Amino acid sequence: MERFTISLDEELAREFDALIATRGYSNRSEAVRDILRAQIEASRLAREDAPHCIANLSYVYNHHERELAERVTHAQHEHHDLCVATLHAHLDHDNCMESVILRGPTAAIRAFAEALIAKPGVRHGALNLVTADYRSLPHVHAPGGVVGAGEGHTHPHGHYRPRS
Questions:
Q1: Where do the domains of the chain lie?
Q2: Rounded Cα–Cα distance for residues 66 and 56 (Å)
Q3: d(CA 121, CA 63)
Q4: Which end of the chain is more exposed for a tag (fewer CB within 10 A), N or C?
Q5: For residue 122, is it left (φ>0), alpha (ψ between -120 and 50) or beta?
């Protein structure tokens, strides 16, 4: 682990310590690391130096909106290569909230999220992106899914690892 020293004026140090206490950090180093990670992520995304990502798309919608739930589900099925999982919560008699875990090419994730948020009846949509490194590795499946059951077949299997 590398160490470095920074100098802060008293007011900035006091405000930083208040932020640390509010967010529950145990020390300044943890807070600085998180701030640096956030800035590095923002910089990568702004420079479009993030070919792959993992993401969370959250949105609220009125489930009485004509066929909206079906259109949202259809969009997720059409992008099954990006959509890992969906959490659906009923907020009240009219509104639902969904959170969709996504992974894949950043441009495709953004396009999917923007299209879904733009659907009439979807409100309060937000996308949280985390840049990721992607590695495609061969993955062997045994016949019938039974390990040790003889010759199987190989297909690519991808892994996404968050950067920084």
A1: 10-47, 52-131
A2: 25
A3: 8
A4: N
A5: beta
